[in-house]
Specification:
Elements: E1 11-15, H1 39-52, E2 56-59, H2 78-86, E3 93-99, H3 105-118, E4 124-128, H4 133-137, H5 147-163, E5 170-173, E6 178-180, E7 190-191, E8 196-197, E9 212-216, E10 227-230, H6 235-247, E11 252-260, H7 263-270, E12 281-284, H8 287-297, E13 303-308, H9 311-328, H10 341-345, H11 353-357
Parallel strand pairs: 1-2, 1-13, 2-3, 3-4, 4-9, 9-10, 10-11, 11-12, 11-13
Antiparallel strand pairs: 5-6, 7-8
């Protein structure tokens, strides 16, 4: 069966927002709805995902509540959840969503650099671009005529800020009382279309040099991110999206896949709130069929971000059956203790632009 598949590494990410991707997942979580906003809920999922061998975790976020109806009406902020997770783990990558359109770029750069320091080099950033009237109203702004350009500007200045401290800027020279070499801390002097940033950052350069940046292909920013997230309702469309992302300059491409091992549970939850399609490939079926799908995806993408319908029931299936079978097939290797996310993904550590210039 598996001889038809070309063997290549498949990195596996897990989206861990709330109780799962299904809007009514909280009804099947097996715990009181209020506990989703507690540290214990984060600990349980993070521990199982890291022990199970996932490459990284992602944390969805939005300027608006997850739901305005009967389902999840609140969430903890994504960077905070990732920072908390950093002290519970030593292998798995941690990539929160942060919206370039609603977050001040300087603070965004500092938060993500701090996450990389806290996790010892395991931070990522899922680039968001909320641009609805309701989302922008949260910061007293109006929708952007060109949100893509705003996103490009924010990514550009955030990357410059991460480089604003050279790697050896901190010297901690006790005899002379010098903490840093000021000649190795740089102003970025960025002028965008809607904002300017002088810098430097208040946080030393991240351990990875640059935090790993993930961007959805819908934003058309493949040449500016490290990993492009592609969505398609079937395998052929995913392959086409992946090919297009690589042609546009993507180093790595991850597919977005929604999963559930229990069709009966999905049908029951749909009676409360339908799980509406959002353009992602969705697989509902036994774990063996999911393994076959993921093996097939190794011919098209470098990784997959899984969106389980209900974390409490689907995550044990993924860690107990799916990931071990992929490891046995030689297409997935868990990250190693104290390995950076860049290293786990096979990405080089970038040279500091200012050190090169100097």
């Amino acid at each position: 069966m598996t001889s038809e598949f070309r063997r290549q590494p498949l990195h596996l990410a897990l989206e861990v927002d709330g109780d799962g991707a299904h809007p009514a997942a909280w009804r099947a979580s097996g715990r009181a709805p209020s506990t989703v906003l507690t540290p214990q809920a984060i600990r349980d999922v993070v521990a199982r995902a890291e022990d199970g061998g996932f490459t990284l975790l992602t944390y969805a976020d939005s300027p608006l509540p997850p739901s305005a109806g009967l389902d999840a009406a609140g969430r903890l902020e994504a960077v905070g959840r990732a920072a908390y997770s950093s002290r519970l783990t030593d292998r798995i990558g941690l990539a929160p969503t942060a919206h370039a359109t609603t977050t001040e770029p300087f603070h965004l750069a500092a938060q993500l650099a701090s996450l990389d320091h806290a996790s010892r080099g395991r931070a990522g950033w899922i680039v968001g671009a909320a641009n609805s009237v309701e989302a922008l109203r949260t910061i007293g702004a109006t929708p952007l005529a060109d949100p893509r350009q705003e996103v490009l500007d924010v990514i550009d200045v955030v990357r410059r800020l991460w480089d604003s401290w050279e790697d050896d800027a901190v010297i901690k020279d006790v005899p002379t009382g010098r903490y840093l070499d000021p000649g190795k801390v740089h102003h970025v002097d960025f002028e965008g279309r809607t904002f300017s940033v002088k810098g430097p950052l208040i946080t030393p350069r991240p351990p990875q040099g640059q935090v790993v940046v993930f961007g959805p292909d819908s934003l058309d920013i493949a040449g500016r991110v490290d990993v492009v997230l592609v969505a398609g309702a079937d395998f052929d469309s995913l392959r086409q999206q992946a090919d297009a992302a690589r042609a546009a300059g993507a180093s790595l491409v991850f597919a977005e896949v929604e999963v559930s091992a229990d069709a009966g549970q999905v049908a029951a939850l749909d009676q409360h709130t339908p799980w509406e399609p959002v353009g992602r490939l969705r697989h509902v079926g036994p774990p063996g069929e999911l393994v076959n799908l993921l093996l097939r995806l190794t011919t098209a993408v470098d990784g997959v971000r899984l969106h389980p319908a209900v974390l409490s029931t689907d995550l044990p299936v993924l860690t107990g059956h799916v990931l071990p079978e992929l490891a046995s097939a030689g297409v997935h290797q868990p990250p190693q203790p104290h390995q950076t996310l860049r290293s786990a993904l096979g990405l080089a550590r970038p040279v500091n632009r200012y050190a090169t210039a100097g």
